[in-house]
Each structure stands twice: as structure tokens, then as C-alpha cells.
Design a protein that fits this description.
There is one protein chain. By secondary structure, the protein is of the alpha+beta class. It has 9 helices and 12 strands. A hairpin with a 2-residue loop joins strand 11 and strand 12. The protein is globular, with a radius of gyration of 19 Å.
Length: 289
């Protein structure tokens, strides 16, 4: 079988994370072909499965990537996580919240609306908050805002609102102290967990911003159960999914459900590359029938 791993031009040799999956996939007789995103859908129809993996420059061309992903999802391509096109813009969190997934409190600001950040923070009772575009990745154009300086961020917020929506969320102290939990699932079955911790003095957990990763071989059962229920709220079956959440008052609150192109942290558990490979093999075989 031949499987395409969709990536970006600067990762055409695949990410370190993806390369960990190659040996167990080869053991299963599966050849992986890196393909740069933007390729025409018809050029992908020859693959037994197409997996969106590391097109991590997409947010610099968000509209173009969204259009491309929709064209692939609407085609005859055997696309893993086909429903992921509905989870690119973070506004999907509103639907998950309505379906019972506890989401971090969020003020949604629609494209074209006035930001009025100070007024919105006052209305929510937040003295500090975080703003970010609803279509973004890697903490791009994400800022920590205090209510006394909120007016300074109205101008950059207006720039975001020219082309998309904006999210305003309370600044959470325990993200800085405890980090953000990540639970990785393959075929909707839990594989491994970790915590992403920001560097001292920052709130961004991404490694590009100095964050670090703490592997958690035995996550609390109650948190794992809550993460699984968040995934169930999508009513979808995913080849891979990553639940990113934070603990507030003992309960897990969803930050993001990553089902498009998440880093899977396969190095977090010795069995995770094989688990991922097995899930790919099973889905590829199922789609050939």
C-alpha cells in the first residue's frame, strides 16, 4: 500500500515526529510518500490513504489552505479525518460546547465587528485575557492583554477582524504553573498523554516559543475519561486526534481539539509509533473494500 503524508515545502523530508512512524509502517508493507500541500486532488487519488501530517506553514496562507483542504475533502481522495475541514477554524468549539464538551470560557468576536476589548473584558469580569484569531496555529498573532492596556490591542485586533474572527479568553494562571494537558488518540482509542509547559514568564506552550514537553505515562484516570468524552462530543471517528485542555477547579476544560495536522508526540511512548501505524493500516484496508 502507498500512503501520502501531506507536509510543507520546508518539511518535505517529514517532521521528526512523522519519521518515527515510518519503520512500523514499513513493517506493515506500507510505503509513505511525502506530498506538499496544495497538490491537485486528482493527483492524490492513487494513494490508498492520504494523511494530513505536517503542513505547518498553512496559517501563513490560511484562506488558500482552507480552500485546498475543502477541495480534497470534497473529492474522491481517500482522506483520513475527512471531517477535519470543519475543525480548522476554532469556531468549532462553540458546537462542541453545546454538545457537552466543557470549553474554556470564550468571547467570540465575528469578522467585521468592533473589538472593544476593554468593554468585553469588563463584561466578563476578566482583568487579564488572551486574544487570538479563530483561524491560526502556533500562537500566531496571539497576545496576553491586561484590562488597563486593552485599548492598545484594538488596532491589531481590527486587522485580524478584516479577514476572520477573533477569540477572547481569560488568562489562566495555571497554564503557566501546570501547563496544558494533551491526550493523543488513534482510531478514537487513547494512546499517550503529556503536558506542554511554557517557559518562565510566558503563557505560550509551543516549543517554538520556548515551551517544553513533560511526558505523562500515567495520566489521572478522571482527566483521561473527561478527554475521551470531549472527543465523543464530535460524533466522528478519527484516525488521529489530540485533545488539548487545561484543568480548572479540578475539571478538564477544552482548549483545542486538533484533528487537522497536530504534532502527535510519538516519542512520548515507545508503543505510540506502532499504534499510529496500525491505525493507518486498518483505515487504508477498510477504504479499499
Amino acid at each position: 500500500m502507498r500512503v501520502a503524508f501531506i507536509t510543507s515545502r520546508d518539511l518535505i523530508d517529514l517532521s521528526e515526529d512523522d519519521r518515527l512512524a515510518l519503520p512500523p509502517l514499513a513493517d506493515l508493507g506500507i510505503e509513505v510518500v511525502p506530498v506538499e500541500w496544495g497538490s491537485e486532488a486528482k493527483s492524490l487519488t492513487s494513494f490508498d490513504l492520504v494523511v494530513i501530517r505536517s503542513p505547518w506553514d498553512w496559517y501563513t496562507r490560511g484562506i488558500e489552505f482552507t480552500s485546498w483542504l475543502r477541495s480534497v475533502a470534497d473529492s474522491d481522495v481517500r482522506l483520513a479525518n475527512r471531517a477535519c475541514v470543519h475543525f480548522l477554524d476554532k469556531s468549532y468549539l462553540r458546537a462542541l460546547d453545546a454538545n457537552g464538551a466543557a470549553v474554556v470560557p470564550t468571547e467570540w468576536i465575528a469578522q467585521g465587528d468592533a473589538p472593544d476589548l476593554r468593554a468585553r473584558m469588563e463584561g466578563r469580569g476578566w482583568t487579564e485575557a488572551v486574544i487570538k484569531p479563530s483561524l491560526s496555529a502556533n500562537a500566531s498573532r496571539t497576545h496576553r492583554v491586561s484590562i488597563v492596556r486593552a485599548g492598545e490591542f484594538d488596532a491589531p485586533a481590527r486587522e485580524v477582524l478584516k479577514t476572520g474572527g477573533l477569540m477572547l479568553q481569560p488568562y489562566l494562571d495555571n497554564v503557566a504553573s501546570q501547563g496544558e494537558w494533551t491526550f493523543v488518540f488513534f482510531a478514537n482509542r487513547f494512546s499517550h498523554a503529556l503536558r506542554k509547559v511554557p517557559k518562565a514568564g510566558d503563557f505560550r506552550v509551543q516549543t517554538d516559543h520556548g515551551g517544553s514537553v513533560v511526558f505523562e505515562p500515567n495520566p489521572p484516570v478522571e482527566l483521561l475519561e473527561q478527554a475521551a468524552k470531549m472527543l465523543e462530543a464530535t460524533h466522528e471517528r478519527w484516525l488521529y486526534a489530540r485533545v488539548d485542555a487545561v484543568v480548572l477547579e479540578g475539571l478538564l476544560r477544552l482548549m483545542e481539539l486538533e484533528v487537522v495536522e497536530p504534532e502527535l508526540f510519538l516519542r512520548a511512548h515507545p508503543e505510540s509509533p506502532k499504534r499510529f501505524a496500525d491505525a493507518i493500516s486498518r483505515q487504508a484496508i477498510a477504504l479499499r473494500k
